[in-house]
Specification:
195 residues, alpha+beta, 2 helices
Length: 195
């Protein structure tokens, strides 16, 4: 029963995390998977890489990805991560940065462009018709300028999962309490018989 309670808690944590990110641009939900092993019920989770719906914004530097991976961005400490959040703006130096101030990276370093620059499906950045950079992308990935990818989380389904996980936890807890009560009664009955 303890493993069932732990599995329900993992499922609840996964669903709650998904719900917390329902409006995070480019967020990919996690999916919980339960399996019965010799050690009991085990729950693991994995990222669902299904493309989130695209929303048209018409802004040149709002970018959505079609395909695997994310945009390579560098933070102020120099760390590079991948992110599917594609809302970029020009900073004071003309570099494209996301809402967290991370710089969009191209094949040859940070992407810098003028206000009227365009970005094609291959990630080529053109300013005044001249190529000024190319966004660093994973193979097989394309860019859609003027769109943003939204989260692939279905809020209603996640709420149903939260309720189901809570009920599974409560049921396992009640069964565990019932077993403890039965054992306690057996011990007390044995003690009475011996006296």
């Amino acid at each position: 029963m303890a493993t069932a309670m732990h599995a329900a808690k993992v499922r609840l944590d996964v669903a709650a995390g998904n719900l917390a990110n329902v409006s995070s641009g480019g967020f990919h939900k996690r999916v919980a998977h339960a399996s019965l092993t010799a050690a009991g019920l085990v729950t693991t989770s994995a990222v669902d890489a299904t493309q989130g719906p695209l929303v048209r914004t018409g802004r040149n530097f709002d970018l959505a990805l079609a395909g695997p991976g994310g945009f390579f961005v560098r933070d102020a400490q120099g760390g590079v991560v991948e992110s599917r959040a594609g809302s970029f703006e020009r900073d004071g130096r003309g570099r494209l940065v996301d809402a967290r101030g991370r710089v969009l990276l191209g094949r040859d370093g940070p992407i810098a462009a003028g206000a009227e620059a365009t970005i094609d499906a291959r990630g080529i950045v053109r300013d005044g018709g001249e190529e000024v950079g190319r966004i660093r992308l994973r193979p097989g990935t394309t860019v859609q300028s003027g769109f943003l990818e939204t989260s692939n989380v279905d809020a209603v389904r996640e709420m149903v999962d939260v309720l189901g996980a809570q009920r599974a936890f409560e049921t396992a807890q009640k069964v565990l309490c019932a077993i403890d009560d039965a054992r306690s009664k057996d011990v007390n009955d044995v003690a009475r018989v011996k006296s």
